[in-house]
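Handout for the seminar on molecular recognition.
Each group receives one record of this type.
Step one: identify the two inputs.
Step two: read the structure output and locate the region that could contact inosinic acid.
Step three: write two sentences on what you found, then compare them with the reference statements printed after the record.
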Amino acid sequence: MKLVFATHNKNKVREVKALMPSNIELLSLTDIGCFDEIPETSSTIEGNALLKANFVKEHYGFDCFADDTGLEVQELNNEPGVYSARYAGSDNDAHANMNKLLANLDSKSNRTAHFKTVIALIQSEETELFTGICKGTITRDKKGTSGFGYDPIFQPIGFIKTFAEMKLEQKSEIGHRGKAVRLLINHLTKA
Ligand code: IMP
């Protein structure tokens, strides 16, 4: 069975491919000749995952899934949330985004936050959502150099390291995206 992962991110495709059951042939957007920037115009993380999966189904006819992730900070009414990539502007500048978040949280004592990944799967006209959450806190300073995005300022609950100080395997084991992907794989394996 062919299944498209609606992303242009080669690292994400490689990671998920390694976990897929052998009866599923995972295809990337490049594999199906889709070079469009799929619009992410929803005001929710769920909505954007669905928009991307629906776009591929409608325009290319493949069963597919898409993911969307945001960092939700309690004291900031769950900002940056769906706007995580462009919190400080439109160009996905991780340091500018982190600086803005640290400045907005400067006077707050409650630094509770969580990452949320939603995967939308459209398979044989059925739609399913899989959600992975990783709870933690926003540190006062950036620590570590691994990973991407907000990793240097996110410390998961129960750990003394930020995501950016962890090995990728450990981050995937406890992280939001890994949890959502494992729920998806369980579902596909059962089917
Ligand atoms: P996407 O939906 O996976 O493209 O994620 C949207 C934005 O959320 C990214 O551009 C990052 O700023 C942030 N983000 C997503 N996942 C992570 C993560 O695992 N660590 C840190 N930041 C992340």
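Reference statements: The domain at 2-189 is CATH 3.90.950.10 (Maf protein). The CA atoms of residues 4 and 81 lie 25 Å apart.
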